[in-house]
Amino acid sequence: MPMQVYAAAFHRADPRPRVGLVLSGVGLDRDASLEAIHSLPAGITLAVSPYAQDPAPLLAAIRASGHEYLLSIPMEPESFPLNDPGNHALLTSQTPAQNQRQLEWALSRFAGYVGATGALGLTDGERFAGSAEDMAPVLQDLARRGLLYVDPRPHATRLPFAWGRTADVVIDDPGDAASVDAALHRLDRIAERRGRALGVVGAVRPVAVAVVAAWANGLASQGLALAPVTALALPPPHGARPDQPQR
After folding, report:
1. For residues 213 and 97, what is the distance between their CA atoms, to the nearest angstrom?
2. What confidence tens digit (pLDDT) does each residue in 174-188 have?
3. Domain tally for the chain?
4. Contact 128, 134 (CB under 8 A)
């Protein structure tokens, strides 16, 4: 399955608490995205926008740097239409058939991803993800394809059907250096208490990327292991299919 085949390397016998980070918005600004790909350690998972123009060189750089990556699915945020997730967004006002076509468009933009996320730049599709009726077919489709799902909404109830994880902390809201650093330290404390933690950075911005790089390079000295999302994923709340990987 893709979530196994394309998973980044990780020593799963490592007993240290695991902390992971998803950087969203990759591909929206090509130069900033390439800088982030090359400056961040491979353990950080990247979420690539389906709206990225000519994504092939970007994906080649991601793979060469050892990162695993997710596909960002454009979904309706609470602030819609003030914040518009684009022409191919999944919307609560659309029929299931219309949303399925939009999902298939996103999934067909490129290959090699381990899963998907609702994080797309500074939106996280919370209105669509909060509608169980609309979200269920999406998660069932991802599960059939062997893809995991990262829910970028902290404190949200774990979604059914697909393997995945809910984010514990949004790192860059706000996005100044001091706030990003404080959010990363909150993430560390969660990992120390629970054994696993996941943060999401909503946009590829130089300030946030620089702070994240310094933080990631100092994790080992704190007794924490930087882990890709595939090393943090959990089975769906109602159980996994027998052919799904166990962690």
Report:
1. 42
2. 999 999 999 999 999
3. 1
4. yes
